[in-house]
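Contributing new complexes? Match this layout with phosphoric acid mono(formamide)ester.
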Amino acid sequence: MKDITMNHFLDINKIAPTELRKIIDHARQMKDARQGQPKGTMDAEQPLAGHMVALIFEKPSTRTRVSFDVGVRQLGGQTMVLSGADMQLGHGETIADTARVLSRYVDMIMIRTFEEATLLEMAEHADVPVINGLTNRTHPCQIMADIMTFEEHRGPITGKKVVWSGDGNNVFASFAHAAGQFGFDLTFTGPEQLDPEMGFIEEARAKGSNVQIERDPHKAVQGADLVVTDTWVSMHDHPTTRERRHNQLRAYQVNAELMAHANEDALFMHCLPAHRNEEATSEVMDGSNSVIFDEAENRLHAQKAVMRWCLGK
Ligand code: CP
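Output block (do not edit by hand):
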């Protein structure tokens, strides 16, 4: 029988705003409590003691892999990092059977995969919490870290204006989910061919968020409190689309000239990995308004809070 206290962390739009707020606040508390300590120091509280967490990667990763692994250890648990290609999952075993089997060995599963359907099927058949570590469609852990990062620097994100410049990809989609849940405004600026799914925008609008599409990047960033971009060719995009995408997206590069049209104190974010001087210039990435490495650090703290929420700890 499934544990009724179990929470999956599948997408930001599937979790109540009050719960999301608790997760962000808890992440902040845990980060503050660790200030100045070596990275390998265990947290004072060890809620994952005796717990085993499977981290499954069907795509490459640096931040997600290391931050989940370190986070579990800081909370007293143990990890098993698995490559999808090395598992029977990559050789014909069903996702449902994989979920049932893993549930007999581990207390929680984090999966980075291609299709959203794989994540959902894993969650449906697992008897332990499942966390979305990125699919082709969304990247909720990244955006939890990004909300935390914005609020560390600028206070509550509610009512602020976030501008996404570039490809309407999976990271944008989770920003759209967050706009609806945290109550900020969101403008997408990019070429029509790379527009996000309208469903993400309509859902955020239905929750009261002012979500706009503006083709002119200079107009888009006017009044922005935060400017965000991402790589022009995502992991799930075919490499042969590279040249076409670069041509479509060149006008949406985040550079000092574009940032000059945003609010003077507008932050700059990029989830990384970046292709420097393509989607954003090094001048912006290394500039005083850039918080890209805080975002990367906050993956650790936000995900620790997500894991504790999943396990009710
Ligand atoms: N931002 C992000 O998810 O980084 P990785 O692909 O390195 O995990």
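Reviewers usually confirm one structural detail per submission. For this one: Strands lie at 52-57, 78-83, 108-112, 130-132, 161-165, 185-189, 211-213, 226-229, 267-270.
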